[in-house]
Each structure stands twice: as C-alpha cells, then as structure tokens.
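Hi team,

Filling in the usual template for the complex we talked about on Friday. All components are listed, including any nucleic acid strands or ligand strings, so the model treats them as one assembly.

SUBMITTER: L.P.
PURPOSE: interface mapping
COMPONENTS: two
RESIDUES: 234
SEQUENCES:
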Amino acid sequence: EFVVSSIIDMYAKCQSIDDARKMFEKLKVRDIVIFSAMISGYALQGLDQDAMQLFYEMVKVGLVPDTVTFVTTLKSCSNMASLVEGKLIHAYILERRLEGNVQVGNSLIDMFTTCGCMEDGKCVFNKLQKRDTISWTAMVTGYAQAKEYNLALKYYQDMEQEGWKPDNVTVVSLLAACRQEGLLVEGCQHFESMKKEKILPTEDHFNCMVDLLGQAGHLEEAVDLLQCMPFGFD
RNA sequence: AGCGGGUGUUGCCAGC
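RESULT (copied from the run log):
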C-alpha cells in the first residue's frame, strides 16, 4: 500500500523503471496512487507512450483519475507535444470538472502552449479561479517558446501588476525572451531584480546574461560576469 | 483529521 507506492516511486526515480514495473505487475490491488506513481516514472524517463497507455489502462479498470494523475499524464503529452492525447486528457478533466484546479490548470497551460495552441492555453489561464506563480510563469514561458516575446513580457507585466513575485524559473524565461529580442537594458533589470527578490541565479541565468551582453558588444562585462559565475564555463 | 503518487526551466550544436 503506502510502502509499495513509495518503492515504485523510488525505482522509477532511480532509472529502474523496469523494476518498478515488475513490482507493479505483481500487485493484486492497484489504486490511483500506484498507477500515478508508475505513470510519473514513465513520464520522468521520457517513456511517454507507456505513460499514456497506463493512463488508459487505469481508466479501463474503472479507477477514477485525480488531480495528480492528470498532472503527471499531461506531462507526457507535453513531452510528446501530442495535442491529440492532450485534448483527450482535457476531455477527462472537463468530465471530472477539474479544469479550475490550479495544478491541473497549470499543466493544461503547459500542454497547450507546448503544442502551439496559445489560444487554448490562454483560455485555461483565464478560467482559472486561482492562479499561482507557476500559472503566470507557464504563460510567460509558453509565449517565449512560441517566439511571441512581446506577449511573454506583457504577461510578466500583468503578473507584477497583480502583485506576484517572479521566481528563478520566471526570470530564466524573461531573460530568454530579452535575449532573443536583444533587450539588453530590460534583461539587466530583470537580472538585477533577482538580488532584490533574493533569488539565487543558476547557470541558465548566467548563460542568458553573458549572451545578452556579448551580442550587444559589451564583451568586458560579459567576461566579468563569467568570472564571478559559480559554475564552469560553457 | 492524517498518510504513499504532482505542474512552470534559455539559446546553439551534435546524435537518435
């Protein structure tokens, strides 16, 4: 029961997905947590077709997916950028009336924007009763990935205006957008604002900043930044 | 009432 799902989870996260599956197969009784742990393991390993198949199997045996099941299954849809499967999962979510759930909504936003369906993503976002940092960041990242940088930056402005603070992931997406648009000043502002927000920069932040400075011809500043970076060179 | 499964992470290049 509790122990079993933990072990499956552990195997799945330690790249022993086959061992996880063996244990899964041996079980006489499987509940949604066991299924979700197994689906999550497949999604983590990029075995997305297996994840989807297990989801369908789970529904077929009469188990009712919950928010966690949907979140993990949508992850596989995103990995594959499979709109067809994503829409099918969306239909199950609507049936269960879970579209307004924050985590499920966030996953739907990610799935739709990853599949290039910006309107559907926006629609889910707009319908969310409650939003969190991840909802906003998913929109920023989604538009940045779609190369709609101005919209990405606009979502960030709205996010700020509604009183939300960015976190390190938000800033990576912002810097990526600025880098693509060559917005040096704005990029520097976001990078500087990390100190104020007490966000620790990761390698990704530095990579974006070094490139942003470099492409603007500020080579010395780029080198300075490289030198104070707590990581190896790229 | 509680417990095991959970969503957002830059760019370029190479391989599959």
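MY TAKE: Chain A has 14 helices and no strands. The first helix of chain A runs from residue 2 to 13.

Thanks, L.
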